[in-house]
Amino acid sequence: MANYDIGIDLGTTSIIIYVVGKGIVSKEPSVVAVNKKTDSVLAIGQKAYEMAGKTPAHIVVERPLQNGVISDIDMTEEIVKYFIKKVSSSYVVKPKVAICVPSAVTNVEARAAVNAALSAGARKTFLVEEPIAAALGSGVDISLPRGRMVVDIGGGTADIAVISLNDVVDSTSVKCAGTQFDDRIIQYVRLNHKVLIGEKTAERLKKEIGSVKKVMEDTEMEIKGRSLETGLPVKITVTSDEFIPTLNEFAMTLVVAVKGVLEKTPPELVGDILEDGILLTGGGSLIKGLPELISGETGVQCRVSENPIDCVAIGTGMALDLIADGYSLSYSSDY
Q: Max alpha carbon distance in the chain (Å)?
């Protein structure tokens, strides 16, 4: 396998690049800064993220992927081109590219992802479902006739799938993921403290003290924002416990989806899942109390992947390796 073949975890909040033979080589926010006066791209990735909330009116920092799907094809192509150029070790032979997609992806969305990669210079493009990649990247042997349940909670969507014999038995995708938790935090602070905070502050709050279930002592955190009453900058102190009801209510959307997939899964595979547990992956799986909440509601033990953020990109690279070695993967679509 040439060392410039690439696996891409093209997420709503971040893009992670895996190069076969090298591992994870790049991890940056999937954002673009655009000058609306000239329609030119000013920055991509981390540099663009640092501009967020600090630009003049004619410069917009936007995410071309919304809720796990491509909403702006042109800007997505710019992102993919940028990262392929950044990590490729050869411009003579175009790389093969594997891209992760949600399990419930539509044909239109799949074609948009393929076109972005081909336009960016890929020789051939493979689409791999995110739960499959997450399982592979977490060290799960999906070739066995045994039911495995994966819940991949990304930035825009949560993908829930039962896997057996290298394929997805049943799956669903729900918009209950990282950015939506951030939105709930922003709404809560606005309604209950009359303060407007930004996305970065909400994300930091979620990571540091956010919880969907009481699993730790009440913790305080000081945040900054703009008072909706005076319009002036303010500092307020919030606690972890006060966010539990609103985050728990939203997290139940995910729990209901997990239950729905379990209810449609064949009995023999459900028995395997009960024995092996549910695997949680993605950055959203790190929200405090989430494994305990899902376990308590379903009666099935949950565990978080050892490398929840990178496992999807790693699994994508592993899929490329398997395809190169001649394995027939029924879950990958090539173009």
A: 65
